[in-house]
Amino acid sequence: AAFKLAAIYVREPKGTDYTEQDAANIYQTLSEDHDSAAARRAWANVLIFGKTLKHDLVKARQLLQQDADKNDPRSMALLGNALLYGRFGVEDEKNGMRWLEKADAAGDAEAGNTIALYLYARKGDEASLKRAKSLWIKASLKKYMPAINNFSWALCTSSYPGFLDAKTGVALFKMAN
After folding, report:
1. Is the pTM of this model over 0.90?
2. Is 143 left (phi over 0), alpha (psi -120 to 50) or beta?
């Protein structure tokens, strides 16, 4: 219940005095008193993306790293994503991909989708496109809708030679819905 309450406080609902700081306080308590990886991830997200709370990228990275080092797939995926896209200040493709690959190997479909989208949008070479397709297929088989959506979109709109396959893209999307 406290976790869900903090999620409401993050949005700073109109007509209340609750703020992101209140949410961060709840996440901190859950993190410390209950050793909750989910609370540390949520707290890190507030520290990175918060609208009114002062960003603390060092603390956010520590929170994600704590559980990534314990092989928590979601923490590995979020840490990898943050490193890959420079959420801590500088893009770190090597370490970002390393954490995302570990999360994907541990079964985190979102990590596979993130890698696939990065390879497709930022790399685009033949090997990257082949790997992206493989990751999207794997995540799609897990019925992970963001991956299905991204893969369908890529198949329907791609400008890469040999990747465009609108018929399959539409069929994949229809099959998932």
Report:
1. yes
2. left
